[in-house]
Design brief:
The structure is a single chain. This protein has 15 helices and 18 strands. It has three domains: 92 residues, NAD(P)-binding Rossmann-like Domain (Rossmann fold, 3-Layer(aba) Sandwich), CATH 3.40.50; 169 residues, Mur-like, catalytic domain (UDP-N-acetylmuramoyl-L-alanine:D-glutamate ligase, 3-Layer(aba) Sandwich); 133 residues, Protein-Tyrosine Phosphatase, Chain A, CATH 3.90.190.20. The protein is α/β, with parallel strands linked by helices and 418 residues long.
């Protein structure tokens, strides 16, 4: 099959491109900018273009007709490539449609990891542990990995491990054999107009899963009682894994419980292997001495990551870039005591994406109004002054943590290379 992936450098489409290659399909596509995933795909011989005006798609289709145009939910209905694909009569479908068909074609049992927080790390943990235990596994994870590509297909595998996100209700397109729910809090107000809708979506997702493993706190939150098919875990069941961060130990516990459910019952060996998990990119990733990057952009994620950081250092500087003004309108009252583990907080302007143009942009001062350690906060920009401050803090032995899902990670990496 000749497949064109639009946005193939992204964390959702990129892994599918790798999977399609592994399965023997011809892959091409586009993105708006270069990145780690596009570099990896080029290294595998994939011809791709930076730019999405539709001309490359038309040229490709004229040479070798395309069978499928696969795209992400973030692609607008009037996107030039999508319009061109429809005009040319090419089959179009979102990434969930492609994956659902792939799973059916290869008779794979879906082990899906969903929730508001911790999906990427937990998926990475599961993939790492399967690989180290010698269990054939196919997978898709929403980040780059130090121990393999972000997506892979092994024809010997029985299971497909998938980071099943809730944005655009993507998770409802699947009926997993086994679902792991990491941690659930209301998010993505652009996809869910109310908290009740968010909870109802997760309840529906659980009903579509053959078996579910989740923490009691999260089942209570979505008002889903435990049943014969829903394994409810209490906090005191958290495994004593040699992993930094309480939330990582909870996520690791879910993976251990999944292995137990699937019949891999050497609990000691499973825990030993999981305890060597090297982490995933953008999840408390160490970029340099005393400098870390993290994708977290929700109050609960911030608190959990700072707790992890405090296990390594008593002196933390947090540089935080909020993500999406629309989201901030829903969560700004939740910014309370989550930042207290940081000695200093440098608060940046919100990274704007997929916005409601009628909403006023909340200022850093408005977002920090209710912080319990507001005296530790100062306001900054991604500029030379901030980089100098980061360098001084690092030199003085402070752990500097840069958090956000926007441009902050790329900015830090560029500064380190300059």
């Amino acid at each position: 099959m000749n497949i064109y992936f639009s946005g193939l450098g992204g964390v959702g489409i990129g892994p599918l491109s790798e999977i399609a290659l592994d399965a023997g399909h011809h892959v091409t596509g586009s993105d708006l900018q270069e990145g780690l995933v596009t570099e990896q795909l080029r290294a595998r011989g994939v011809k791709l273009v930076i730019g999405q005006d539709g001309s490359y798609l038309r040229e490709t289709h004229a040479k070798t007709p395309l069978d499928w145009f696969v795209y992400t939910a973030a692609l607008p209905a009037d996107h030039p490539e999508l319009l061109a694909a429809k005009e040319l009569g090419i089959r179009t479908g979102k990434r969930d449609e492609f994956l659902a068909e792939f799973l059916k074609e290869h008779n794979l049992k879906l082990l899906a990891i969903s929730g508001t927080h911790g999906k990427t790390t937990t998926t990475g943990m599961a993939v790492w542990t399967f690989k180290q235990l010698g269990i054939p596994v196919s997978y898709s994870v929403g980040t780059t990995l130090s121990f393999g590509p972000s997506g892979a297909f092994d024809p010997k595998s029985e299971y497909f491990v998938y980071e099943c996100d809730e944005y655009d209700k993507n998770l409802l397109h699947f009926s997993p054999f086994l679902s792991l729910l990491t941690s659930i809090d209301y998010d993505h107000p652009d996809s869910y107009p109310s908290e009740a809708d968010y909870k109802a979506t997760f309840r529906q997702y659980v009903s579509q899963s053959t078996h579910t493993i989740a923490w009691k706190r999260d089942l209570d939150y979505i008002e889903q009682p435990a049943t014969d098919s829903i394994w409810s875990l209490s906090t005191d069941e958290t495994a004593a894994l040699p992993l930094t961060g309480e939330h990582n130990r909870r996520n690791g516990t879910l993976v251990l419980k999944a292995l137990e459910y699937l019949g891999y019952n050497d609990a000691v060996r499973n825990a030993q292997v999981l305890g060597t998990f090297p982490g995933t990119d953008r999840r408390f990733e160490q970029l340099a001495s005393n400098l870390y990057s993290d994708y977290g952009h929700h109050p609960e994620e911030i608190e959990a990551t700072l707790q992890l950081a405090r296990e390594l250092s008593d002196h933390i500087v947090l540089v935080y870039q909020p993500h999406q003004n629309w989201r901030q309108h829903f969560i700004h009252n939740q910014y309370l005591n989550q930042f207290e583990a940081a000695e200093a907080v440098i608060w940046l302007p919100t990274y704007l994406t997929r916005e409601n143009k009628d909403q006023p942009v909340l200022t850093p001062q408005e977002l920090t109004a209710n912080l319990t350690n507001k005296e530790a906060v100062r306001y900054g920009e991604l500029n030379d002054d901030l980089w100098s401050e980061i360098q001084v803090a690092r030199d003085n032995g402070y752990l500097v943590l840069c958090m956000g899902a926007g441009t902050i990670d790329g900015w830090v990496r560029e500064r380190l290379q300059s």
